Amino acid sequence: MSETALPQTTDRARLIERLAEPRTYDLAVIGGGATGLGVALDAALRGLSVVLVESHDFAQGTSSRATKLVHGGVRYLAQGNVSLVREALHERTTLLHNAPHLAQPLPFVMPSYHWWESPFYGIGLMMYDALAGKAGLGATEFLGKARTRECLPTIIQEHLWGGVKYWDGQFDDARLALVLARTAAAQGALLVNYCKATGLVHEAGRLAGLRCEDQESGRSFELRARCVVNAAGVWVDALRELDGQASGRATKPMVAPSQGVHLVVDRDFLQGDHALLVPKTADGRVLFAVPWLGKVILGTTDTPREDLAREPEPFADEVAFILDESARYLQRAPRREDVRSVWVGLRPLVKPVEDDGNTKGISREHTVAVSKSGLVTVTGGKWTTYRAMAEDVLGKIQQAGLLPKLAASSTDHHRLIGAPVPGSATVRLSDAPGAHLYGDEAALLAGLPGADVLVAPNLTEAMVRFAARYEYARSIEDVLARRNRLLFLDARAAAAAAPAVARILEQELGMPQPTAPFLALAERYGTLPA
Ligand SMILES: Cc1cc2nc3c(=O)[nH]c(=O)nc-3n(C[C@H](O)[C@H](O)[C@H](O)COP(=O)(O)OP(=O)(O)OC[C@H]3O[C@@H](n4cnc5c(N)ncnc54)[C@H](O)[C@@H]3O)c2cc1C
Questions:
Q1: Which of 180, 285, 382 has most ligand 1 atoms within 8 Å of its beta carbon, as the pocket-test mutant?
Q2: What is the pLDDT of residues 79-117, one digit of tens each?
Q3: Residue 226 and residue 413: Cα distance in Å, rounded?
């Protein structure tokens, strides 16, 4: 990295000072997950003035809890949803190109234990290849028994018939979110984490901005904006309700949350470089075992939920389902005591909406709804398609006349912060984390104090300093859950690292860092329900 390309610092006092400046933004975004960050970046690149507020940390909601797949969605193909798959395959290519340090191709193998399974699933996967066209990452292959064993050396061999190998991608979701935030900031957008939207400002029936509160100081601000985007994930309905109340209209909920559980175990359980896909579990679902950052992610589930917990709890039957299904395929069946971390995310599944006058569900996967007052709500979709969703949101804003004619989107080819020059060697995302995840900012990282001082496995003192200086980190959890993924990989190791991380953060941020809240969180991630 050259001197001139030094990254922006994320000094909080300066961010709050900017938040207090009286001005009218073109766009205010509520929610700093994949969706909101994607919208902020797209808008900033079009030359709009943008502010984004996130009530917790960037990606603390659903966007740090994905299965980490950049995928076209083989499942949607089985449902005949061809245009959706084609769009996601296009987005897969874009993401792999724009952030190769954080998103990479990954080979998957579906082992078959009956003669008909390989042709049955293989034909569908060949259609997947055909749809990908030039965006394909590698051709689907039918594997004999020996090759299947080579790719997945630790799967059960008895009655193994063969397998099918295909390609998709994987990524580091939380780090990608941070890179999106930083890339938007580099384009002039103001993004503030730990700043909750507490109200909407209406004038003569039109939305004119929002009220927000700095969660650290309790200080409130009114932000004026020509257009407000509600990208609050599973929490969008609370803001829609506020908007409805102001115009005396009742709003029906749009989101039906569904939770997904992941268990993390050591790499010994799934050796080799390939992910395992179980196309049909005992109850007809899909299960993945994915090598990621030196461990293996097993998951996921799909359980409807009524509540919207910030840290949803796994149910005992979800854990049992994942362990039982894994045991049907892995030679060494993972037991409860082998689980290093358990984490749960809430999918923002969208109900059809036709309730707000000109508001209407417009897509099968994600939905953009514009209310009478002009609140633009976007939810649903998946991480892989965040960029296309953002483009759609800006398109709907223009269509609804909320902002004057906009420049075209340029996110398709805009490489994200840290993206190394094309073709330069990258370490696989399935390998243990390290400086490679910083892409071409690794040199800057190496120059920070403590570059060779380890505070936890694969976490250096310099990485903690980098998180505080350039990546908006405010707490131990921010560092150990999202800048570094140790909490998601090994909850006990993360708890052990907490005091050292606290000491470095105290130096960097000049504020106390109590360890108790993080230790309680790590206890939850390290404990399975009885
Ligand atoms: C189990 C599971 C597995 C998945 N796996 C994959 C996968 O492998 N690949 C893939 O492509 N997709 C996957 N997805 C989907 C993907 O993770 C989601 O579609 C995506 O993360 C949703 O992002 P979001 O920004 O809409 O929501 P969120 O990430 O939840 O962001 C919304 C943000 O809004 C904030 N917020 C809420 N209220 C306020 C307020 N009043 N003021 C300010 N901020 C507020 C929240 O704190 C939150 O950070 C998975 C999802 C789940 C649940």
A1: 382
A2: 778 888 999 999 999 999 999 999 999 999 999 999 999
A3: 27
DSSP 155: B
Phi, psi of 121 (to 5 degrees): -80, -30
Q: What are the two backbone dihedrals, phi and then psi, of residue 507, each rounded to the nearest 5 degrees?
A: -60, -45
59: helix, strand or coil: coil
- Residue 213 in contact with residue 40, Cβ under 8 Å? no
pTM of the model: 0.97
Q: Whose CA is nearest to atom 48 of ligand 1?
A: 61
pLDDT at position 149 is: 97
CA 448, CA 315: separation in Å to the nearest integer? 43
**Segments in the chain below pLDDT 50:** 1-4, 355-363
Q: Which residues neighbour 48 within 8 Å (Cβ) at sequence distance 6 or greater? A: 26, 27, 403, 406
Judge residue 159's burial from the number of C-beta atoms within 10 Å of its C-beta, 0-12 exposed, 13-18 middle, 19 or more buried.
Answer: exposed
Number of the ligand 1 atom closest to the C-alpha atom of 347: 53
Helix (H, G, I), strand (E, B) or coil at 255: strand
Around Cβ 511, how many Cβ atoms within 10 Å? 11
Cα–Cα distance measured from residue 363 to residue 220, given in angstroms and rounded to the nearest whole number = 36
8 Å CB contact between 417 and 7: yes
Among 37, 52, 62, residue to substitute to test ligand 1 (most atoms within 8 Å of Cβ)? 62
Q: Calculate how far, in angstroms, residue 107's C-alpha sits from the geometric centre of ligand 1.
A: 25
Q: By CB neighbour count within 10 A (0-12 exposed, 13-18 middle, 19+ buried), where does 328 fall? A: middle
Q: What are the helix and strand counts (H, E) for the chain?
A: 16, 20
- For 60-81, b/e burial (b = at least 16 CB within 10 A) is bbbbbbbbbbbbbbbebbeeeb
Asked if 367 and 254 count as a contact pair (C-beta separation under 8 A), the reply is yes
Question: Which residues line the pocket of ligand 1, CB cutoff 6 A?
Answer: 30-36, 53-56, 60-63, 65-69, 196-197, 231-233, 235, 260, 300, 345-348, 379, 381-384
| Phi, psi angle pair for 123, to nearest 5° | -65, -40
| pLDDT of the residue at 357 | 37
Tell me the sheet residues that pair with 258: 304, 347
> How far is residue 87's CA from residue 433's CA, in Å, rounded to a whole number?
30
Q: How many angstroms is it from 345 CA to the middle of ligand 1?
A: 8
